[in-house]
Amino acid sequence: MKLNIVEYPDKRLRQKSTDVEVFDKKLHDFLDAMYPVMMDTNGIGLAAIQVAKPIRALILNIPDDDGEQPYENLLEIINPIITHKSGETVYQEGCLSVPKFYEDISRYENIVINYQDRDGNTKTLEADGLLSIAIQHEIDHLEGILFIDKLSYSRRKKFEKEYKRMLKEKK
């Protein structure tokens, strides 16, 4: 299965993802295909919608203290629901669907989510730090929200101008 990252301003990124209801080999194959796409593009998270599949599934692999992302640390999160959020933190985020742009984004510092794994088992995860930020970023994708949507009006205008210039330079 060959997957490609959908890039801004593609309208598919604005699509709201639907719940996963069938946990079968087809889902497992899709999740397995997402992993190399994320790793080959130096990502730490990838939502299904970013590879053109509008389902509530995402994967994460936060680098360890050595900057490595061993496969054993991979999190597959399906149908996530944030059940608790507290604190506030600001982190410079980037996105595989909005390449080469980084902005300071305000997020909750601590979250608790309920989700399902690839087999449909219900799980709970408490997250803080980069894991919390990455989960919130990827859940936003499932809702059709990009990190650039969280920018102030003036920063968003500056982003749009820079992005158009970058696209012209690509051609």
How would you describe this structure to a colleague?
- It is a single chain.
- The chain is α+β, with helices and mostly antiparallel strands and 171 residues long.
- It has helices spanning 25-40, 129-142, 153-170; strands spanning 45-47, 57-60, 75-86, 89-95, 98-107, 110-116, 122-128.
- The strands form two sheets. The protein has a five-stranded antiparallel beta sheet. Strands 4-5 form a two-stranded antiparallel sheet.
- The model has no long low-confidence stretch (mean pLDDT 96).
Main features:
Peptide Deformylase; alpha+beta; peptide deformylase activity; single chain; two-stranded antiparallel ribbon; protein biosynthesis; Peptide_deformylase_sf; 171 residues; five-stranded antiparallel β-sheet; metal ion binding
Beta percentage is 25-35%
Percent of residues in helices: 25-40%
CATH class: Alpha Beta
Number of domains: 1
Low-pLDDT parts are none
Task: Quickly describe the structure.
By secondary structure, this protein is α+β, with helices and mostly antiparallel strands. It has three helices and seven strands, in the order H-E-E-E-E-E-E-E-H-H. The protein has helices at residues 25-40, 129-142, 153-170; strands at 45-47, 57-60, 75-86, 89-95, 98-107, 110-116, 122-128.
